[in-house]
C-alpha cells in the first residue's frame, strides 16, 4: 500500500504573484476582472519591474486597481487613463507604465485619447477589459455591446440602426503605426487564461524594449449586469463574444521599425 | 536691463525659468505664442512639449506629469479651458499641483478672440464639479505675466493645488519692457507624494475617490483647511491713491490697467479717486475692500464683462455704500478707452 510513501507537502502550483495584494476582491462572483488583475500582476513579476511600475486606473469596476496591485497607482478621470499615462511616460522615461481600462472607458469616452496615445507610439501597456457593457454604472450599453444584446439602455436589444455596431478596438488599433503589439484574449477557460497571460506579458515586453504601445483586449464576463449565473456568463463569452471578437494577435512588431 | 517682450512669451519664459519642463496644449487664439515658444525652446533644454489631441487630452497629460512630481504647465483660452475643467477638478481632489494659464478670449460659445474677462466666475468659483478652489492670479502687465507665473508654480507646489493665471488677449499680445530678474522664490517641501515607482518605499496612490464611511467628508474638510491657509497667506492686491479717495474704482487685469489711466486723469481734475486692483482673485482681498468701505463714499467696478467680480465687491463692501458698475463685454474693438472710464467716474462721483 502507499502508506509508506512520505507525505508530500501540499504545494501551490501557481502561487499568488508578488504584485497581487492578498485581500478579498470586491468583484461580483464570476467576474473576470479578478483573473485579469492577476495576469497583469504576473506579467509585472515576470519582468521583475514591480518597483518601477506605475499603474493608471480607469473609472469603472476596476477603479480600485490600487487595492489589488502592489505598485504605485494614479487614478485618472473616466476615459483619460492613456492621456495621463502619456504624461507619466514623458515625465518618467525609465519607469514601466500600464493602464487598465474598461470598454466604456477606453472605447467610448476615451476613444480620442487611446487613438492618439497609440498613434504617438507611447511606450506603455494598455489592458483593455471588454465586458460588452458599463459594469460599474449598472449595465448600460457600451460601444462593444453586441447587436441584439439587452442592456439597461437597450432594453429591446442593441439595434444597429440606432446604435451602430460593436467596435473592435484591438483590430482598429493594430492599424496604427505607433502600436507595437495588439491582441485579444479571453479568460473563460484555462487554455485561454494561459494564452492571455502570454499576450499581456508581450504587451509589457514591447514597452520594455521600446518598440511601441502594447495593447491587449480581454473579453470578460460580467454576470451581474448580463443577468446570468457565472457559468452561464462563461458560456456566453465562448458562444457569443468570441465569434464576434476573434481571439488572436493582430499585430506584433519585432523591432521599432519607425518609418 | 529690460527687454521688450510679448505678454504670452513672458509667461513661457517664466515657466522655463521656474523649472517647468512639461507643457501639453492644443492650439487656440489668443494664446498660441505660449506653446509655440515652448515648442521652440523646450527641445534645447530637455523639456517636453507635446501638442495633444484636445484640451481634454492635454490636461490629463499634465495630470500625469505633475503626478510624477514634475513642474507642468498648460495654457489655453475660452472653449479649451472649459474642456479642462474635469481634469482640474480631479487634480484638485487628488492634490496634484500644476499651473493653468487662461489667456481669456470672449464668450460664451465660440464668442470671439478679443480680450475679455468673462471667465472670472469659471476661474474663481472652481469651474469644474465638486467642492474645491483654485488660487487665481490676475496679471495686468507683461512684468506681472512673468512674475505671477513664478508665483503660481510656487503656490501650486507649496499647497499641492492647481493654480490659475488669468490673463487675457490684450495682455498676451502686447509688448512691454520686461525685467528678467527672478522674483523671490520659496523654499518648498519635497514632493514625497509623487508617483515614481515604489523602489525603497511602499506603493503610493494619487486619487480623488473616497467611498469609505465619512472618508470624503474628512477629505473635503482637509481641503478646506488648506484653502483657509491659502486665504490667510496668499491674498494680493494693488492700491493707487485710495487713502483719501471718495470714489474707489475696483478692477483687475486689463480693465485695471485702463482704469489706472482714468484714475490719474480724474486726479488731475481734482476728483478724489483711487484704484483698488485685486491681483489674487481667489482668495479675494475682501477684508481690505471692507476697510476701504469705511472711508470711501462710493465704488465703481469696471470689468470686461457684464458683471462678475462686482458680486465679490458687493459681498465685501456690503449695502451701505453705492456700488456702480461699468461693464464692457468685448467685441472686436470693444476695449474701453480711458476717457470712457473717466466719463463714468465723473458721472458717479459722489
Ligand atoms: C465623465 C464621466 N461620465 C460618466 C461617468 C460614470 N461612469 C463611471 S464608470 C462608467 C462606465 C464604466 O464602464 P467600463 O469602462 O466598461 O468599465 P466596467 O465597469 O464595465 O469594467 C461610467 C459611465 C464618470 N465617472 N465620468
Ligand atoms: S458589475 Fe460586472 S464588471 Fe463589475 S464587478 Fe460585477 S461582474 Fe464584474
Ligand atoms: Mg465594461
CATH architectural group of the largest domain in chain B: 3-Layer(aba) Sandwich
Helix content of chain A: 25-40%
CATH class group of the largest domain in chain B: Alpha Beta
Whole-number count of domains of chain A: 1
How does the overall form of chain B come out from the CA principal axes? Answer: globular
Strand order of the largest sheet of chain A: 2-1-3-4-6-5-7
Give me the number of helical elements of chain B: 12
Radius of gyration of chain A over alpha carbons?
19 Å
Q: Give the termini separation of chain B.
A: 43 Å
The ligands found in this model are: thiamine diphosphate, iron/sulfur cluster, magnesium ion
What is the gyration radius of chain B calculated from CA atoms? 20 Å
End-to-end separation of chain A: 69 Å
Strand content of chain A: 15-25%
Question: Main β-sheet of chain B: number of strands, strand sense, barrel status?
Answer: 8 strands, mixed
Here the CATH topology of chain A equals Rossmann fold
**What is the total tally of β strands of chain A?**
7
Structural class, from helix and strand content of chain A?
A: alpha/beta
Quickly count the domains of chain B: 2
Largest interface: A-B, 35 and 39 residues
Q: Categorize the overall geometry of chain A.
A: globular
Observed structural traits:
heterodimer, A: 259 residues, alpha/beta, Rossmann fold, 10 helices, globular, B: alpha/beta, five-stranded mixed β-sheet, 12 helices, 21% strand, binds thiamine diphosphate, binds iron/sulfur cluster
Describe, in short, the structure shown:
The complex is a heterodimer of chains A (259) and B (350). Chain A is of the alpha/beta class. Chain A is built from ten helices and seven strands.
Amino acid at each position: 500500500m502507499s502508506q509508506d510513501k512520505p507525505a508530500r507537502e501540499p504545494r501551490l502550483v501557481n502561487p499568488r504573484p508578488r504584485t497581487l495584494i492578498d485581500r478579498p476582491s470586491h468583484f461580483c462572483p464570476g467576474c473576470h476582472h479578478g483573473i485579469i488583475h492577476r495576469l497583469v500582476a504576473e506579467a509585472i513579476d515576470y519582468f521583475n519591474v514591480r518597483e518601477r511600475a506605475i499603474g493608471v486606473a480607469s473609472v469603472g469596476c476596476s477603479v480600485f486597481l490600487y487595492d489589488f496591485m502592489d505598485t504605485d497607482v494614479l487614478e485618472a478621470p473616466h476615459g483619460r487613463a492613456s492621456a495621463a499615462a502619456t504624461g507619466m511616460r514623458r515625465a518618467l522615461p525609465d519607469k514601466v507604465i500600464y493602464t487598465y481600462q474598461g470598454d466604456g472607458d477606453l472605447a467610448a469616452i476615451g476613444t480620442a485619447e487611446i487613438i492618439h496615445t497609440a498613434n504617438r507610439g507611447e511606450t506603455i501597456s494598455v489592458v483593455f477589459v471588454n465586458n460588452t457593457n458599463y459594469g460599474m454604472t449598472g449595465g448600460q450599453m457600451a460601444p462593444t455591446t453586441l447587436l441584439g444584446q439587452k442592456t439597461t439602455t437597450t432594453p429591446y436589444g442593441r439595434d444597429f440602426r440606432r446604435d451602430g455596431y460593436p467596435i473592435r478596438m484591438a483590430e482598429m488599433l493594430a492599424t496604427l503605426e505607433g502600436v507595437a503589439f495588439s491582441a485579444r484574449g479571453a479568460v473563460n477557460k484555462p487554455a485561454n487564461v494561459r494564452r492571455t497571460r502570454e499576450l499581456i506579458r508581450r504587451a509589457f515586453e514591447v514597452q520594455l524594449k521600446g518598440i511601441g504601445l502594447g495593447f491587449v483586449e480581454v473579453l470578460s464576463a460580467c454576470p451581474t449586469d448580463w443577468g446570468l449565473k457565472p457559468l452561464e456568463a462563461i458560456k456566453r463569452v465562448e458562444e457569443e463574444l468570441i465569434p464576434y471578437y476573434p481571439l488572436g494577435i493582430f499585430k506584433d512588431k519585432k523591432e521599432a521599425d519607425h518609418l | 536691463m529690460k527687454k521688450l517682450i510679448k505678454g504670452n512669451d513672458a509667461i513661457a519664459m517664466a515657466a522655463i525659468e521656474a523649472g517647468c519642463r512639461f507643457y501639453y496644449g492644443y492650439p487656440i487664439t489668443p494664446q498660441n505664442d505660449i506653446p509655440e515658444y515652448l515648442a521652440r525652446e523646450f527641445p534645447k533644454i530637455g523639456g517636453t512639449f507635446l501638442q495633444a489631441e484636445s484640451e481634454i487630452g492635454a490636461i490629463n497629460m499634465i495630470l500625469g506629469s505633475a503626478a510624477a512630481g514634475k513642474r507642468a504647465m498648460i495654457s489655453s483660452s475660452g472653449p479649451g479651458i472649459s474642456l479642462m475643467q474635469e481634469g482640474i477638478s480631479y487634480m484638485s481632489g487628488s492634490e496634484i499641483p500644476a499651473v493653468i494659464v487662461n489667456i481669456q478670449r470672449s464668450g460664451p460659445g465660440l464668442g470671439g478672440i478679443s480680450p475679455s474677462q468673462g471667465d472670472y466666475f469659471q476661474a474663481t468659483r472652481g469651474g469644474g464639479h465638486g467642492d474645491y478652489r483654485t488660487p487665481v492670479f490676475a496679471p495686468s502687465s507683461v512684468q506681472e505675466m512673468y512674475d505671477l507665473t513664478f508665483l503660481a508654480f510656487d503656490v501650486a507646489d507649496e499647497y499641492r493645488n492647481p493654480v490659475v493665471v488669468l490673463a487675457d488677449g490684450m495682455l498676451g499680445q502686447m509688448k512691454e519692457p520686461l525685467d528678467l530678474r527672478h522674483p523671490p522664490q520659496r523654499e518648498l517641501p519635497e514632493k514625497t507624494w509623487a508617483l515614481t515607482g515604489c523602489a525603497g518605499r511602499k506603493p503610493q496612490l494619487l486619487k480623488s475617490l473616497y467611498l469609505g464611511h465619512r472618508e470624503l467628508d474628512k477629505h473635503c474638510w482637509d481641503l478646506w483647511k488648506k484653502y483657509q491657509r491659502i486665504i490667510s497667506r496668499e491674498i494680493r492686491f494693488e492700491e493707487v491713491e485710495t487713502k483719501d479717495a471718495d470714489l474707489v474704482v475696483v478692477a483687475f487685469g486689463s480693465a485695471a490697467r485702463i482704469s489706472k489711466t482714468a484714475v490719474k486723469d480724474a486726479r488731475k481734475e481734482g476728483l478724489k479717486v483711487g484704484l483698488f486692483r485685486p491681483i489674487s482673485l481667489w482668495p479675494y482681498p475682501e477684508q481690505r475692500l471692507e476697510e476701504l468701505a469705511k472711508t470711501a463714499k462710493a465704488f465703481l467696478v469696471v470689468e470686461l464683462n457684464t458683471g462678475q467680480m462686482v458680486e465679490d465687491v458687493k459681498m465685501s463692501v456690503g449695502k451701505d455704500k453705492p456700488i456702480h458698475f461699468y461693464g464692457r463685454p468685448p467685441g472686436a474693438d470693444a476695449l474701453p478707452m480711458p476717457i470712457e472710464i473717466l466719463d463714468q467716474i465723473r458721472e458717479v462721483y459722489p
